[in-house]
Amino acid sequence: MKEFIQRRDKNGVAYLTLCRPSAYNSLSMALMQQLFETLDEIETDLSIRTVVIKGDGKGFCAGHDLKEMLDAGEESFYQLTFETCYKVMQKITSLPIPVIAQVHGVATAAGCQLVASCDLAYAADNARFGTPGVNIGLFCSTPMVALSRAVMPKHSMEMLLTGKLISAARAESMGLINAVVPENSLEQEVEAVASLVASKSRHTLAVGKRAFYQQKDQSLADAYIHCSQIMVSNMLSEDAQEGIDAFIAKRQPVWKHC
């Protein structure tokens, strides 16, 4: 099978490149399956503490492979496509380490969903984002799930109802991405952020990421109760003890990632 996901590891960071440049890295069934499998491998790879997802060629990701879906012409294939897609997005959220989107060119429909699903996102100043399904009679309902959790309701509805592309600057103002970076500096900026995150304790990153998504939909009182217990458990971990001792002694911590 052709490889649609290229993985390169460096200093605790796994860089994953979507490799279907001729199709703007659209999410074919094979690509999604390979992405899921790669993330699944990374989940238990204790040497990796951060993941970066980027696209090959002229753009990040143009969404689902509509030609593949149309050629299949079967409800069962449509069902499998969207099920595979949401499993990939859920895998990103449940992964015990942070995932960063590095965006250039277009990130549309399920490509925009992919960006919204990542924990952090940085984009080149020429990047464009959109959920244009409404333009072809196919409302971006599954991208809406991630988008509506990443930005304010009226912003997500504007994108979903109009189908218009928005600039990287607008995406930043809406909270869809963290920052806009000059195109020729994007790779260096993302590498710097990824390396900084990867320098932390993997155990602590996992505790924090899991707690963040767990408390989001809880009431204020329940969130405080839940996160207080998380902090007690975290405080008892070896890395927390090491980190606090290193802070007091004014030295660099030596993580055991546990």
Q: What is the CATH class name of the largest domain?
A: Alpha Beta
| CATH fold assignment of the largest domain | 2-enoyl-CoA Hydratase, Chain A, domain 1
Strand order of the largest sheet: 1-2-3-4-6-9
Mean pLDDT, nearest integer? 96
Fourth-level CATH superfamily of the largest domain: 2-enoyl-CoA Hydratase, Chain A, domain 1
**Global shape:** globular
Query: What is the total tally of β strands?
Result: 9
Overall tally of domains: 2
Unreliably modeled segments: none
Protein structure class: alpha/beta
Order of helices and strands: EEHEHHEEHEEHHEHEHHHH
CATH-level-2 architecture of the largest domain:
Alpha-Beta Complex
Biggest beta sheet attributes: 6 strands, mixed
| Rg for CA atoms | 19 Å
Terminal Cα span? 37 Å
Q: Quote the beta fraction.
A: 15-25%
- Count of runs of 4 or more consecutive helical residues: 11
Question: How are the SSEs placed, and which strands pair?
Answer:
Layout: E1 5-10, E2 13-18, H1 29-43, E3 50-55, H2 66-72, H3 75-94, E4 99-103, E5 106-108, H4 110-117, E6 120-124, E7 128-130, H5 141-150, H6 153-162, E8 166-167, H7 168-174, E9 179-181, H8 186-198, H9 202-215, H10 220-235, H11 238-249
Parallel strand pairs: 2-3, 3-4, 4-6, 5-7, 6-9
Antiparallel strand pairs: 1-2, 7-8
Textual characterization of the structure:
By secondary structure, the protein is α/β, with parallel strands linked by helices. It has two domains: about 5-200, 2-enoyl-CoA Hydratase, Chain A, domain 1; about 200-250, Lyase 2-enoyl-coa Hydratase, Chain  A, domain 2, CATH 1.10.12.10. The chain has eleven helices and nine strands. The protein has helices at about 30-45, 65-70, 75-95, 110-115, 140-150, 155-160, 170-175, 185-200, 200-215, 220-235, 240-250, and strands spanning about 5-10, 15-20, 50-55, 100-105, 105-110, 120-125, 130, 165, 180. The strands form two sheets. It has a six-stranded mixed beta sheet with strand order 1-2-3-4-6-9, sandwiched between helices. Strands 5-7-8 form a three-stranded mixed beta sheet. Strand 1 and strand 2 form a beta hairpin. Helix 3 (about 75-95) packs parallel to helix 4. The longest helix is centred in the first third of the chain and has 20 residues, at about 75-95. The chain is globular. The mean pLDDT is about 95. Keywords: Fatty acid metabolism, Lipid metabolism, Lyase, Transit peptide. May play a role in fatty acid biosynthesis and insulin sensitivity. Pfam families: ECH_1. One of its GO terms (molecular function) is hydro-lyase activity. One of its GO terms (biological process) is fatty acid metabolic process.
